[in-house]
Design goal:
single chain, alpha/beta, Nitrilase/N-carbamoyl-D-aminoacid amidohydrolase, 6-stranded mixed sheet, 15 strands
Length: 300
């Protein structure tokens, strides 16, 4: 494959430790976006719910005050940056669709500042310190890639990354890469070796989506410790480790486990075509034999 046939996409990622001050978080994100664009980034991917602390550690009705409409203040803020810098931005917001009806929503801002599309998180966890079902209604937009000037983006969110069906459906609809804004970390009650098994499993399952679908994967996690406001637990130590994998699952970049990170990673989007010729998984799928996948469990 010659250089002339490559379509290189430079992806900028920001792995950030958030504070309780929304204005501070957004200011530092803006600074990071400017820095990465100066380094050639054409697409910026931000972490899950990047404007605030990860508020789902507790169930508190007052927290719904953080939610906002789309379009709204945050899409205006990041849209202006996208337009000024000529870059596509994947943002992650607490969307208020109507009073009492909210979603965990990824929004893609086009280079002209317009909203190219959005994705509402489909798989909603409900675990200790991750009480997302209290805040978020499951998405209703399906697994639909978002067309942009830099490619067709298969944007998913955090817990979605554990489900191969989500990645596959994005792939079948023509996504050119899979993107996962994320907020995941260690429980202090887990032993260090168990913590590392979880972090490696998180990386491995997403690299598996890259292999199974012949697509690059971009996963951007938050980092640092965030206290439990209720003081019932020691809080969450987010494990960072944001990464970019190629179409064969190869690690092209991996951020530190405990430090903030801004980086630009080059992806060759034409590589998927060659990988899929070598490994034609989509050709060999037995679509006539998969009806059981629409059932919760097969017990007969």
């Amino acid at each position: 494959m010659t250089k002339e046939t490559e379509k290189t996409l430079k992806v900028g990622i920001i792995q950030q430790h958030n504070s309780a001050e929304k204005a501070d978080n957004m200011s530092r994100l803006a600074e990071g976006i400017r820095q990465l664009v100066a380094q050639g980034a054409q697409l910026i991917v931000l972490q899950e719910l990047h404007n605030s602390l990860y508020f789902c550690q507790t169930e508190d009705v007052d927290t719904f005050g953080l939610a906002e409409s789309i379009p709204g203040p945050s899409t205006d803020f990041f849209g202006r940056l996208a337009r000024e810098l000529g870059v596509v931005i994947v943002a992650s917001l607490f969307e208020q669709r109507a009073p009492g009806l909210c979603h965990n929503t990824a929004v893609v801002l086009e280079r002209d500042g317009s909203i190219a599309g959005k994705y509402r998180k489909m798989h909603i966890p409900d675990d200790p310190a991750y009480y997302e079902k209290f805040y978020f209604t499951p998405g209703d937009l399906g697994f639909q890639p978002i067309d942009t000037s830099v490619g067709r983006l298969g944007v998913l969110v955090c817990w979605d990354q554990w489900f191969p069906e989500a990645a596959r459906l994005m792939s079948l609809r023509g996504a050119q890469l899979l993107i996962y804004p994320t907020a995941i970390g260690y429980a202090a009650s887990d032993a260090p070796d168990e913590q590392q098994r979880q972090r490696e499993a998180w990386t491995l399952v997403q690299r598996g989506h890259a292999v199974a679908n012949g697509l690059p994967v971009v996963a951007v996690n938050r980092v640092g410790h965030e206290s439990d406001p209720s003081a019932q637990t020691p809080g969450i130590q987010f494990w960072g480790s944001s990464f970019v994998a190629g179409a064969q699952g190869e690690l092209l970049f991996r951020a530190p486990e405990s430090e903030e990170c801004r980086s630009v990673v080059s992806l060759d989007l034409t590589r998927s075509e060659h990988v899929r010729r070598w490994w034609p998984f989509l050709r060999d799928r037995r679509i006539d034999a998969y009806e059981g996948l629409t059932r919760r469990f097969i017990d007969d």
